[in-house]
Structure formats: structure tokens, C-alpha cells
Amino acid sequence: MLSFTGSARRLRLLALIALLTTAASVLWGSPGAPASSQVVIVRAEQIMTLDGLLNPTWLFPDGRIDYGVIERLLNETVSAVTGEQNTLAAWRSLISPSDRVGIQIDVAGIQPHDPVLEALVRRIVDAGVPLRNIIIFSADETELFRAGYDLSGTVPGARVMASDAIKYRDGVSRIVLNHVTKIINLSRLRVDPEIGMHGALANYLAVVPYEERTRLRRNPDQLAAAAAIPTVRRSSILHIIHALEPAYAVSDSGRKYSVWQYNGLLASVDPVAVDTVAQGILRERISEELGAEAAASLQVPYLVAAAEQFRLGNTSPDCIEVVQIGP
Which of 133, 153, 280, 291 is 20 to 30 A from 103, alpha carbon to alpha carbon? Predict the structure, then answer.
């Protein structure tokens, strides 16, 4: 059995993961990283409904989330990624009614906008997956609870699980091994002082134990090892970066973020490519708000290793096609 005790064993584990990933590529008929990748960016002019009968300004001074706009963003995103114009056909090209679908979320730092997750769950149900076969999960039970998720299992609807509570086998979350057949990776775009940026790849820290999460964060050039675990890689079908309000700066305490209204979603089947594009978006905003020097200092050390060592995708702009929909 694989163990996470001792630095030598950890190094052997990473080597084994890389070896298994290469072997898996051969067995599945895949050369590893794709020759080219597509990243879709879908944006809206406005995601808030302003003064109206159901959202008076005295009660909602900043407006209220327009659920119709959120659903349109998600529909256009998935259609563009899959090449299917029909929304239902787009989802059914990714999942089938017999699948057990895991939605991997980011609940650390900024809390996710529920409308995006709710729209995602509705679309999965529309594709024929029973609500009981949808599992919303992250790493830490306490963070999920603080974010308002019900982990009791007694409330009807999609189930919510934490990897730390469900436990691990051979260093991999039992949620991935035993409970889901497909993973949709829903991350949140934000700076992270320790690893540079939290996006698609960093979200996969949720599938490894706390000790390994901590070690990978301290050695971010190896962070993509979590996403490269063969079972995780094989199960992952779509990476969506929630960028309605990305965070371009964080306070020293790590609890307060500076955000802006980007009003968009980024998506790809390539986690490295979508993170590469996301880094560019963050850098552009940081340059506007904090200056060019601050923007240049935003380094994401795991991207190169993700492409070259773990062969998870592309970082070269020449190999990434960006499809932009909206403003």
C-alpha cells in the first residue's frame, strides 16, 4: 500500500504517479498532452438585475443575481467546448444517465456563487442523471460546513461529501475511487500567495490527504501530481473556472480579497490550458490595479511541470485556441 509518511516514500509516490500516468496514456490510446487545446471564455455585460418588483434597490442596493444570465453563460460554455449547439446534446456528449457525477468545488477563501453550482446541477439532471447520483465535494468538511453546505445526507437533493470525512485509499480520495464515475472540476479564479493562483489544477488538491495537500502547496512545482493521478485524470471530463468575480489581490490575513466584475466563465477539457489563460486574465487586471511590476510577479510554478512532466495539457500560446463569446 502506498504511504504518505517520509520524504523518500513521497518521492517514490510521485515517481509512481508519473509512471502510471505515462502507462495509462499508452493503455488508453492517448499520447498524453494534446497537440492543441481550446479554451472557451463566455462573458455577460451584466449578471445582476437592477431595480425591479422582486429586487427593490432598498433591499438589493447592488442588484440581484440574474439566474437566467448564469444559465445562459453555462449553456454557451458547454456548447462551445463540446461543439454541440443543442445544450442537452452537449451535456449528453459528456455524461450519461448511468454516471455518478462528482462536482469538485473550491470553498476556501472566497465562497462560490451558488447560482453557478445550481445551474450546473440542473443541467446534469436534465441530461438524465438522478439527483441522488450527483455528489458535490471538496477536501475539508469544516470548510464545506462554513460555506453553508449540508453534509448530513438527510436533506433531499445532490449529496455533499468531504474527502477528509470519506477517507482515502492508497493516497486517493474514496469519493473518486468509489462514489463517482465522472468529475466536473468547478474552481474559482483567485490569487493565492503560496502557490500563485488557484484555478483548475489547484482544485485537485481536494483528492489527496491533508498531509499531501500541505506538502504540494509547499512545493508548488509538483502540485499537478494530484491532477495526474490516473483515476482522477481519467474521470475528469470538464474544467470550469468560475470567474464572475475573480480575486486579483488578497490581504495579509488571507481572509479578504479584492475582486472585480469579470462576469464570465472559462472552460476547457485541458486544465493546464485553462489555467494558462486564467493567469493571463489575472495578470492583466493586476497590472491595471497594482502596476506592471506586481503583474509580472504573479508566478504559477506548477504550470510548466503540469505540461512537461505530467503531460496534462498545454501552456504554449501557439498550442491554445481561445474562443471568446460575449463582450
Answer: 280
